[in-house]
Design brief:
Sulfite Reductase Hemoprotein, domain 2; binds iron/sulfur cluster; disordered N terminus; five-stranded mixed β-sheet; 23% strand; Sulfite Reductase Hemoprotein, domain 1; 367 residues
Length: 367
């Protein structure tokens, strides 16, 4: 076992966190059958601490394993087809629009790319590819470096992250275009930048185009029905209960902290007030965090009208975009920023938990 202390654990490369080993499962096409979901719940309960997190790249994290538990978990996950037996194939995140249908463009392109995975050059740890080829793009806020999207003309397009526009890609040539742009990224020194959006080299002419992605407007259709997970977390018992809903065939994983249910209506949830509220796992489960995050986020949620991000440190794992109110842990206290990311300069520094609550209780439902 190679224990990683940096970013991006996989199933084969668990990360040592404050609550034990953390392993990440990234199922094919972001879909797990009800039976696979029950297996994951059983592994989490038996070999971990029962906590299962849905990440903002639509992967599942199991926490609190020891080495023996990790070995048992890996064997079971590989046998169930949830983890590839080849550790190299686990390393690159492929994010798909979660409402894909069998045989549609998202499904077709992702399947073709998976078959040619070995042709990709060695890419940085956090590099990812989004296949977002439905009638409108839904993954625009999700972390990815290369994006296959639906253009506003209706054509399929390829866009390098950080660039507003991209090029048209003929049907059937999408994977060739992805491989060529990944090759260019590496050859032009992108590995040092780490991410496409931070790589300032001018794109080659063949990758420069004027197509804009067709953005989704309004709330996504509730088909398949969605089930929100507060802070992206579900425990093993709750996941097992979800799989026992009559008719449930499978779960789709999304990057926005909801599960989509295939074949069954979503159970009622009384946790809607936590929509728009993001908080990472924080201390003590994450060694980088110096504050507990989710208890404060839960207390603040009814008091804040807009979006809220409570982050254990300035890495801001739970949310990469701005939130109306941001509280970032530093040396056991909170820094407050407004309309910002977790690493933005604060407007108030060094607040205690009680001071934060007092501030917002004095200004209920206001930022
Ligand atoms: S943002 Fe949260 S989860 Fe990420 S490193 Fe900091 S404390 Fe840990």
């Amino acid at each position: 076992m190679s224990v990683r202390r940096g970013w991006c654990p996989t199933a084969w490369r668990p990360m040592a966190a404050g609550d034990g080993l953390l392993l990440r499962v990234r199922p094919s096409m972001g879909r797990i059958t009800a039976e696979q979901a029950r297996l994951i719940a059983d592994i989490a309960a038996l070999h971990g601490n029962g906590a299962i997190d849905l990440t903002n790249r639509a992967a599942l994290q199991l926490r609190g394993l020891d080495e023996a538990g990790w070995r048992a978990a890996i064997d079971r996950l590989v046998a169930a087809g949830l983890v590839d037996a080849d550790p190299a194939r686990e390393t690159l995140p492929l994010l798909v629009a979660p409402d894909w249908r069998e045989g549609d463009d998202t499904h077709r392109i992702a399947t073709a790319l998976s078959a040619r995975w070995a042709e990709l050059p060695p890419l940085p740890d956090k590099f990812g590819i989004a296949i977002d080829a439905g009638q409108v793009c839904v993954l625009g806020d999700a972390s990815a470096d290369l994006r296959v999207e639906r253009a506003d003309t209706g054509a399929l397009m390829l866009r390098a992250d950080g660039r507003a526009t991209g090029i048209a890609v003929p049907v059937g040539e999408e994977v060739d275009a992805i491989l060529a742009l990944a090759d260019w990224f590496v050859a032009s020194g992108g590995t040092a930048a780490g991410r496409m959006a931070r790589h300032n080299a001018a794109l080659p002419d063949w990758a420069t185009g004027g197509l804009c992605p067709r953005r989704s407007t309004g709330a996504p259709a509730d088909d398949p029905p969605s089930y929100p997970l507060p802070f992206g977390r579900i425990d093993a018992d709750a996941l097992t209960a979800l799989t026992q809903r009559v008719g449930l065939a499978a779960l789709r994983l999304t990057p926005w902290r909801t599960l989509l249910l295939e074949g069954a209506p979503a159970p009622k949830s009384d946790l809607g007030y936590l929509r728009g509220i993001d908080a990472c796992v924080g201390a003590p489960a994450c060694p980088q965090g110096s504050v507990a995050t989710r208890p404060l986020a839960t207390e603040l949620a009814p008091l804040i009208a807009g979006t809220l991000h409570v982050s254990g440190c300035d890495k801001g794992c739970a949310r990469r975009t701005r939130a109306d109110v941001v509280l970032t842990g530093r040396d056991g206290r909170f820094d407050l920023a407004l309309n910002a990311r977790a690493d933005a300069p604060p407007v108030v520094c060094g607040l205690t938990y009680e001071q934060v609550l007092a501030h917002f209780k004095g200004f209920p439902r206001a930022a």
